[in-house]
Amino acid sequence: MQRIERLRAPEDLSPQQQAHFGLVVAAKPADFFNPCDLPLLVQLSRHLARADVIENKFRANPFMLMDEYDDLSRLADRETKQITSLMTRLRLTPQSRYRPDSAKHDAAGTEMRRPWEIE
C-alpha cells in the first residue's frame, strides 16, 4: 500500500499563514489536493491571515470612528470575496462539491426524467 503525502506549506509563508495552510489541508483526505493546487492554497492561506488581521483591528477598537469602521468593513468584504472564490475553486465549499447522484434524483428520491426522455 502506497502512502500518500499531504501537501506542505511553503517555508516562505508566515507562521499564521502556515497554520491556515495546515488546517485546510488536514481537513481533507490526503489525496484531495494535487501539487497543482499549491498556488491556490498559498493564496487562500494569505487571505485567511489577512482576514484575521482585519478582525483583530475590529476587536482592538470597538469604538472606532465611522470612517475607519467603513474602511475596515470594505477590506473585510474584499478578503471574504477572495476567500470564498478560492475555496470554491479548490472545491472546499458545499456548493462547489459535485455529487453525481444529487442532480439525478428529485426530493422524493425518484429518478428524474430529462425532457427528451419523456414519451
What does this entry look like structurally?
The mean pLDDT is 87. Helices cover 50% and strands 0% of the residues. It has helices at residues 15-26, 38-60, 66-89. The N and C termini lie far apart (50 Å). The protein has 119 residues and is an all-alpha fold.
Shape: flat
Distance between the termini: 50 Å
Mean pLDDT: 87
**Helicity level:** 40-55%
Our estimate of the beta-strand percent is under 5%
Uncertain segments are none
Write the layout of secondary structure elements.
Blueprint: H1 15-26, H2 38-60, H3 66-89
Helix pairs in contact: 1-2, 2-3
What attributes characterize this protein structure?
single chain, 119 residues, mainly alpha
Concise account of the structure shown:
This is Phage protein. This protein is mainly alpha-helical. Helices cover 50% and strands 0% of the residues.
